[in-house]
């Protein structure tokens, strides 16, 4: 068994080794901080992509339902295709699109009223 020479405890710790320990600790904490920052940035990017994915799928579903509604597909079929629990859920999404139908109806009523008015005056 090798024996070490007897030295005082103070002589084992020198300025160089203390500096090396400090340097290693600061480098390790810098590497750890860098890894944490990179992981946080990755998480932010994943969250942003997930939000974008949800927005794209929502837009695609909404566009499909709107086009089906304009093609006069029954709301029950649209509701089933969208996977809604009831037709009422689908109708809440389709209510704003009744404006086009109202505009067409109003135009036809105004046209009829004008024709009737011109017939009465002449």
From TrEMBL:
The opening ranks of the lineage are: Bacteria, Pseudomonadati, Bacteroidota, Bacteroidia, Bacteroidales
Q: Which InterPro entries match?
A: DNA_brk_join_enz, Integrase-like_cat_sf
UniProt keyword annotation of Glycoprotein present: no
An example Gene Ontology molecular-function term: DNA binding
Give the Gene3D superfamilies listed for this entry: Intergrase catalytic core
This chain's protein is named Integrase
GO biological process terms, alphabetically, are: DNA integration; DNA recombination
The transmembrane residues are 20-53
Q: Which domain of life is it from?
A: Bacteria
Q: Which UniProt keywords apply?
A: DNA recombination, Membrane, Transmembrane, Transmembrane helix
Q: Please tell me whether the keyword Transmembrane helix is annotated for this protein.
A: yes
């Amino acid at each position: 068994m090798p024996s070490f020479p007897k030295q005082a405890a103070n002589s084992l710790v020198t300025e160089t080794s203390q500096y090396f320990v400090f340097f290693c600790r600061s480098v390790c904490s810098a590497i750890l901080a860098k890894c944490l920052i990179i992981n946080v940035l990755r998480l932010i990017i994943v969250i942003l992509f997930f939000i974008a994915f949800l927005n794209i799928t929502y837009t695609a579903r909404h566009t499909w339902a709107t086009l089906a509604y304009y093609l006069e597909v029954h709301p029950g079929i649209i509701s089933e295709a969208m996977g809604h629990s009831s037709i009422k859920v689908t109708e809440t999404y389709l209510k704003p699109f009744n404006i086009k139908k109202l505009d067409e109806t109003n135009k036809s009523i105004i046209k009829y009223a004008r024709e009737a008015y011109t017939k009465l005056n002449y």
